[in-house]
């Protein structure tokens, strides 16, 4: 997309082909930072945090109040799917914008490694190298963790969790990072081999295949939905939804073509997921029906939310809410918060009676003690992530200047077929 910079009164700016684009799509075209996406990341990390810090310790619920809060907070597991939608959208956009440029593949790999590896492998170094030298633990959980560390170093924690378990001490949350890394390894090759329109067919096929994959596991053993939840083929709905939106954003009219239908899709998705929860007594992915049917609905719902945020006017309530400074800060540091928050919650709760037994108020509700734990965990997680980013991670991020990313200077109009680039069209 190359924009002319001209604008008629009351009209959106257009590109050289006279196609209108939203302000955020113009930011996409120039590679600018988009605060609205930080805001959505903030929403995602807060959802995940609610599940781990509030829903988990409230189970089993002691009172009706506890049960209601647990049911609401537990839906936060879908925050991971929002992260997947955002990753699919941004990564696919970067790959499409750099496709055909010199060094696009090594530059992509280097930039991803500089963003992800320092914190991830730094955390593993503390967990598997330093900690055993500082603390002599003879507990079976620690021994199990040490024995299974090869899965962590190779970004296959999701496979470990699906097939063997063995992710103690609140380290199982790293499964989603494993899926993301596996996506980073395979998806660039698909983008290289396919035209933009063919990518839409690949995304649709991946979602259908994922549904069949989950259905096969559930039919084999309805009581065991763990593989369907953790294995990559079954969790591509969000990534493919984001990827498809990235492709559409680079077609004539871009995401504006979806602007009118996005609110209806969002509303329909919420109603469908609510109906599923009502029928199944909750939106629990351990339920075989939810495990098969919920993920596409969650992905489409969050995809519609992304479209609304990207195409909505800056003055709309939704866009202003997502652009709020505090939410953007949570999004900016969401990676560090995600890595540390779950082990940190476990460390705070370790052998603490208030976490296990609660405070005898509100008719025996554990909610006050759980909220106290959550507040402490949120504060410490944010502080750690802020410190990690500014003291440690930024040193590696500065090295990105040696590996150029996508640039508007290298862009041309969107290409509709593989023939334009000499690449096969799948």
Secondary-structure element series: HHHHHHHHHHHHHHHHHHH
Helix content: 55-70%
Number of DSSP helical runs: 19
* Main sheet makeup: none
Overall geometry: globular
Q: Distance between the terminal alpha carbons, to the nearest Å? A: 24 Å
The portion of residues forming beta strands comes to under 5%
How many discrete domains?
A: 1
- Strand tally is 0
Taking all Cα atoms into account, the compactness measure Rg is 22 Å
Q: Mean pLDDT, nearest integer?
A: 86
Low-confidence stretches: 1-20, 408-425
Task: Label the structural class.
Answer: mainly alpha
Explain this structure to me?
The protein has 426 residues and is mainly alpha-helical. It is globular, with a radius of gyration of 22 Å. α2 crosses α16, α2 packs antiparallel against α19 (367-397) and α4 packs across α14. It has one domain (33-420). It is built from 19 helices and no strands. It has helices spanning 23-30, 35-55, 64-74, 79-98, 104-134, 140-147, 149-153, 157-163, 175-193, 196-220, 226-230, 237-249, 262-280, 288-311, 317-322, 325-332, 334-349, 353-357, 367-397.
Task: Fill in the keyword field for this structure.
mainly alpha; 19 helices; 66% helix; disordered C terminus
């Amino acid at each position: 997309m190359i924009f002319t910079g001209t604008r008629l009164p009351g009209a959106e700016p257009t590109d050289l082909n006279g196609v209108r684009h939203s302000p955020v799509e113009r930011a996409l075209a120039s590679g600018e930072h988009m605060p609205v996406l930080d805001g959505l990341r903030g929403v995602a990390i807060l959802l995940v945090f609610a599940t781990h810090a509030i829903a988990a310790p409230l189970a089993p619920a002691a009172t009706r109040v506890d049960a209601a809060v647990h049911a609401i907070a537990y839906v936060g597991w879908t925050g991971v799917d929002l992260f997947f939608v955002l990753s699919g959208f941004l990564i696919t956009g970067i790959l499409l914008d750099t496709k055909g440029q010199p060094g696009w593949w090594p530059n992509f790999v280097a930039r991803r490694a500089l963003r992800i590896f320092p914190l991830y492998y730094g955390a593993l170094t503390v967990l598997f190298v330093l900690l055993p030298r500082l603390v002599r633990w003879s507990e079976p959980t620690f021994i199990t963790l040490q024995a299974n560390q090869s899965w962590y170093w190779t970004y296959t924690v999701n496979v470990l969790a699906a097939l063997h378990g063995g992710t103690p001490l609140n380290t199982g949350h790293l499964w989603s990072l494993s899926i993301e890394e596996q996506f980073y390894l395979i998806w660039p090759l698909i983008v290289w081999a396919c035209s933009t329109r063919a990518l839409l067919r690949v995304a649709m096929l991946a979602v259908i295949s994922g549904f069949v994959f989950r259905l096969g596991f559930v039919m084999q053993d309805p009581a065991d939905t763990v593989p369907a939840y953790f294995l990559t083929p079954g969790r591509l709905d969000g990534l493919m939804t984001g990827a498809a939106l990235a492709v559409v954003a680079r077609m004539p009219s871009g995401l504006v073509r979806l602007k009118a239908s996005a609110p209806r899709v969002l509303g329909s998705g919420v109603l469908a997921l609510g109906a599923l929860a009502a029928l199944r007594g909750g939106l629990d992915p351990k339920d075989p029906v939810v495990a098969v049917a919920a993920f596409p609905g969650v992905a489409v719902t969050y995809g519609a939310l992304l479209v609304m945020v990207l195409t909505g006017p800056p003055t709309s309530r939704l866009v202003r809410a997502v652009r709020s400074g505090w939410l953007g800060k949570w999004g900016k540091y969401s990676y560090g918060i995600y890595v540390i928050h779950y082990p940190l919650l476990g460390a705070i709760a370790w052998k603490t009676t208030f976490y296990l037994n609660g405070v005898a108020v509100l008719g025996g509700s554990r909610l006050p003690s759980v909220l106290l734990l959550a507040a402490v965990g949120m504060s410490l997680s944010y502080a750690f992530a802020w410190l990690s980013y500014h003291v440690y991670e930024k040193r590696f991020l500065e090295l990105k200047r040696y590996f150029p990313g996508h640039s508007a200077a290298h862009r041309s109009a969107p290409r509709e077929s593989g023939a334009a680039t000499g690449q096969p069209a799948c």
